């Protein structure tokens, strides 16, 4: 299912010439999302300001898939949640590749099996609503915190 969502950031400079004379120049339809196109009036190049290039799936979906897995859900369960949330079918092998690709920035992967012994996936990140001028949903990764505190107590 194609989501009509624009993904991108407010572009300030051209990535080719670092020029500031840039304007919006329509949108490009990717497989699962719309991406904002920008045009540089200095070097006459059109570009997209994506943080991650070459991905079929939207970055938000990839991050949510990694989050579900790091919360303690299996690959299959995580893919099922992504299908429910985004309406897009992600294969467990694809999610597994993302986990390996982003392993260096998802440091919880080395502690995951120990965290699963302490908490179920539904207990790992409880949400607490705080009311301070606005409603704020506070979440903390209980398994990660418990493992870090255990580590700190040993030293």
Provide structural commentary.
The chain has six helices and six strands; from the N terminus they run ββββαααααββα. It has 155 residues and is an alpha+beta fold. The protein folds into three domains: 42 residues, no CATH class; 51 residues; 43 residues, no CATH class. The strands form two sheets. Strands 1, 2, 3 and 4 form a four-stranded mixed β-sheet that branches. The protein has a two-stranded antiparallel ribbon with strand order 5-6. Strand 2 and strand 3 form a beta hairpin. Helix 1 crosses helix 2, helix 2 crosses helix 3 and helix 4 crosses helix 6. The N and C termini lie far apart (51 Å). The N terminus is likely disordered.
Give a brief description.
With 155 residues, the protein is of the alpha+beta class.
In angstroms, what is the radius of gyration?
A: 20 Å
Task: Sketch the topology as an H/E string, one letter per element.
Answer: EEEEHHHHHEEH
User: How confident is the prediction overall: mean pLDDT?
Assistant: 84
Main β-sheet: number of strands, strand sense, barrel status? Answer: 4 strands, mixed
Q: Stretches where pLDDT falls below 50 for ≥5 residues? A: 1-9
Which structural category fits the helices and strands? alpha+beta
**Total number of beta strands:** 6
* Strand portion: 15-25%
Domains (count) = 3
Q: How helix-rich are the residues, as a percent range?
A: 25-40%
Count of DSSP helices? Answer: 6
> What global shape is seen?
elongated
Q: What is the first-to-last residue Cα distance?
A: 51 Å
